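Dear H.,

Thanks for agreeing to be a second pair of eyes. The structure we're designing against is below in token form, covering all 370 positions.
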């Protein structure tokens, strides 16, 4: 949490309709629909407000504490835990958990200590130990694989443009034997390839596909998604007719960064001194194709800052999403990323954690009252 959102903590997203909110989850959205009807982003904002923490909304919908510091959120949660009498045991690694007769759990710590309880919540994130414990208690685990990552592109001339961004760009991910996936949004060229919101969202929706393909796939980039291919063609033709004597490299006529334009025309074989009047119909067609369906080979994945998200986890069919209780093991509850739920970047993964954590805690408390 301390490093999330560049150290500012992207608490949630300003999306307050449950039906819309679920659209941001490549896996788990259907299961979360009912859960969000009980506790969604507005409830998160309201809860932090009761703790004296105000959140602000940025232009893209992401919500942060007004202090712009993740420590505000960490301190808030720690203070709330202390105020309600929660005992936090640090340096107490868990080796295994067993359920004894009478539905009581025994938590075996590496130190040799044994902790007994009648209700148990597993909120271990993407920890392998958490998955192992859930599996040993009878749950099935959907194989965890990375989500929310950047694309490695081995083309040196593209990497040389690191720092250039285009907003919007449309990306289309193509892999043999699979239906294409598409996302539109800001795109950033980096020292290793491509990043930005469009790439991160595409990586989330294509997480398992890309894993199965060993992160080798084809990416089609439309640098001008606000125009149809024919509109781009007509625009290029108009430029050719109007600026016939001018160098193509210096007079682009499309709304793209100058260095990116020079890179794109070089990709289709246009030299730096070639003039618009000299542009053949064949090369013009290649240029239009490059601007609207430029082809790049993904050769691996990178990491998005310090944030790590996985798809995979405890099978959702084994969970009661009204209470987050296991359908297999009575009095066992789950919350957060240990479940096979993951969202795109923007505060959605935190929101699923807040929601499932709230529902599990509420149910465990009511169970205690009973």
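And this is the sequence the design step returned. I haven't edited it by hand at all.
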């Amino acid at each position: 949490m301390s490093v999330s959102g560049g150290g500012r903590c992207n608490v949630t997203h300003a999306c307050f309709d449950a039906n819309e909110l679920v659209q941001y989850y490549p896996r788990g959205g259907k299961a979360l629909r009912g859960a969000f009807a009980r506790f969604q982003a507005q409830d998160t904002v309201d809860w932090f407000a009761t703790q004296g923490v105000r959140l602000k909304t940025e232009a893209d919908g992401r919500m942060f504490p007004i202090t712009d510091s993740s420590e505000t959120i960490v301190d808030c949660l720690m203070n709330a835990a202390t105020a309600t009498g929660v005992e936090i045991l640090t340096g107490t690694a868990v080796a295994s958990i067993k359920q004894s007769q009478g539905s009581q759990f025994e938590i075996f710590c590496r130190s040799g200590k044994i902790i007994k309880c009648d209700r148990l919540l597993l909120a271990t994130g993407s920890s392998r130990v958490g998955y192992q414990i859930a599996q040993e208690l009878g749950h099935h685990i959907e194989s965890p694989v990375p989500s929310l990552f950047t694309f490695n592109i081995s083309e040196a001339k593209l990497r040389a443009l690191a720092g250039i961004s285009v907003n919007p760009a449309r990306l289309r991910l193509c892999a043999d034997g699979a239906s294409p996936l598409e996302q539109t949004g800001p795109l950033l060229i980096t020292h290793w390839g491509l990043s930005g919101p469009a790439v991160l969202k595409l990586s989330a929706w294509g997480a398992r596909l890309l894993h199965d393909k060993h992160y080798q796939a084809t990416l089609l980039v439309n640098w001008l998604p606000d125009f149809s291919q024919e509109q781009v063609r007509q625009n290029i033709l108009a430029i050719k007719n109007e600026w016939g004597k001018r160098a193509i490299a210096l007079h682009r006529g499309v709304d793209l960064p100058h260095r990116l334009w020079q890179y794109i025309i070089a990709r289709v074989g246009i030299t730096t001194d070639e003039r618009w009047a000299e542009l053949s119909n064949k090369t013009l067609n290649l240029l239009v194709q490059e601007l609207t369906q430029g082809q790049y080979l993904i050769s691996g994945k990178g990491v998005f800052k310090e944030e790590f998200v996985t798809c995979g986890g405890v099978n959702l069919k084994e969970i009661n999403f009204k209470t987050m209780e296991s359908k297999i093991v009575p009095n066992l509850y789950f919350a957060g990323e240990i479940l096979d739920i993951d969202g795109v970047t923007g505060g959605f993964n935190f929101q699923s954690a807040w929601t499932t954590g709230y529902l599990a805690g509420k149910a465990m408390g009511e169970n205690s009252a009973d």
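Two observations from my side: The longest strand covers residues 165-174. The chain has a mean pLDDT of 95.

Warmly,
E.
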